[in-house]
Amino acid sequence: ARIQLDRLHQPQRAVSHVEDVLRERPNDYEARELAEKLLEIGSMRGRAARMLESVYEARDEIRDLVRVLLIRLEEIDANMQSGDAAEQSGLADERKDLLRRIAELRVDRLHDDEGAFETLALLVPSDPFDTDARERLLEIGRRTNAHERVAQVLTASADAADSSGLRRSEEHTSELQSH
């Protein structure tokens, strides 16, 4: 894998070898090092992040786990710009799950209120009906005196709830009219 990556400049061939090694031996330093190099290559970034996610989770390396989850989030955000509605819906759900996970890790394991707050500020408007996320946002906002920012996020969340509620209402009305 090292030869394919460093000498032949063929990361697409190296990545499967690195995945195989890390699957069998998550503590293999050289394979982790190669996977980290793959993070620097645009086309390999998402796949390398997924590969390292399981490694850092198994090794309980939370800072590195959050770092690769943020890379996965970047990849999802980039992919949401293209694709059909069904694909975008699936990516939106995956994005919300990642945001929840990152926020939980930042609060519970890293004790990073600011980082958790910023993550929740992204999550709450994208999932306005998630009461747990809203409560956590309020709790951290109180601790960090971010009252104005909490108000902005909750306003955006209310707007998103109104528009998604309106869309559901319109869809329901269309269904009733078609019958």
Write up what this structure looks like.
- The protein has 179 residues and is mostly helical.
- 82% of the residues lie in helices and 0% in strands.
- The chain has nine helices and no strands.
- The protein has helices at residues 2-7, 11-24, 29-38, 45-58, 62-79, 85-109, 113-126, 131-144, 147-178.
- Helix/strand-derived class? mainly alpha
Poorly predicted spans: 166-179
Helicity, in percent? over 70%
* Helical run tally: 9
Number of strands: 0
Beta content comes to under 5%
End-to-end Cα distance: 60 Å
Major sheet summary line: none
Using only CA atoms, what is the Rg? 20 Å
What is the average of the pLDDT values? 85
**What are the secondary-structure elements, in order, as H or E?**
HHHHHHHHH
Shape: globular
Structural topology:
Layout: H1 2-7, H2 11-24, H3 29-38, H4 45-58, H5 62-79, H6 85-109, H7 113-126, H8 131-144, H9 147-178
Helix pairs in contact: 2-3, 2-4, 3-4, 4-5, 5-6, 6-7, 7-8, 7-9, 8-9
Which key features would you list for this structure?
single chain, 179 residues, mainly alpha, 9 helices, 82% helix
Gist of the model:
The protein has 179 residues and is mostly helical. The chain has helices at 2-7, 11-24, 29-38, 45-58, 62-79, 85-109, 113-126, 131-144, 147-178. Mean pLDDT is 85; it is low at 166-179.
